[in-house]
Design a protein that fits this description.
Layout lengths: L2 E6 L2 H13 L5 E6 L6 H11 L14 E6 L2 E7 L8 H4 L2 H4 L5 E5 L13 E8 L2 E8 L2 H13 L12
Parallel strand pairs: 2-5, 2-6, 4-5
Antiparallel strand pairs: 1-7, 3-4, 6-7
Helix pairs in contact: 1-2
């Protein structure tokens, strides 16, 4: 599968990566956000929502598990599954009813919802790297590969994205 590595100097660069992913989105998608506490998962989601034009407060859904955001292209569902005890709990949230064409899912701690989440297009692995962060974006199929190709096309004006990719 295609992957892309991105060096993120600071929080602004993490938000910029999220905005770049939003700018290259086509007709919905599912992004799984992996990383330790404080690695930048919610910051990336914030940038993604800002990139889609959302101007309101973007809260981490740590306690609510799910925060929906209405944007021009549809609805973004931001999930934080850190406190999820069992993937079956997602049925109580009505997650299956939300998985419709054009829906956008940003899922933090997706390993806790294994088997109950819609099929993913991209995985974003975030980690601490000195004072900044490092992201590895991995396509999980043809749709994700096309998304990464569109992201690559943005690269000339995007100083936060490194030249390292595989």
């Amino acid at each position: 599968m295609k992957e892309r590595r991105v060096d993120l100097a600071d929080e602004a660069a993490t938000r910029a990566l999220g905005a770049a992913l939003a700018a290259t989105l086509e007709d919905g998608g599912v992004v799984l956000l992996h990383g330790d506490l404080g690695a930048g998962k919610t910051t990336l989601a914030r940038g993604f929502l800002r990139g889609l034009g959302y101007t309101g407060a973007v809260r981490s859904p740590t306690y609510t598990l799910l925060e929906p955001y209405t944007v021009a292209v549809g609805t973004v569902y931001h999930l934080d599954l850190y406190r999820l005890a069992d993937p079956e709990e997602l049925d109580y949230l009505g997650l299956r009813d939300l998985d419709e064409p054009g829906a956008i899912f940003l899922v933090e701690w997706p390993e806790r919802g294994r088997g109950a989440l819609p099929p993913a297009d991209l995985e974003a692995h975030l980690e601490h790297a000195g004072d900044g962060r490092r992201a590895r974006l991995e396509a999980l199929g043809p749709r994700g590969e096309a998304w990464l190709e569109r992201l690559e096309a943005l690269r000339p004006d995007d100083r936060m994205i490194s030249n390292r990719h595989q």
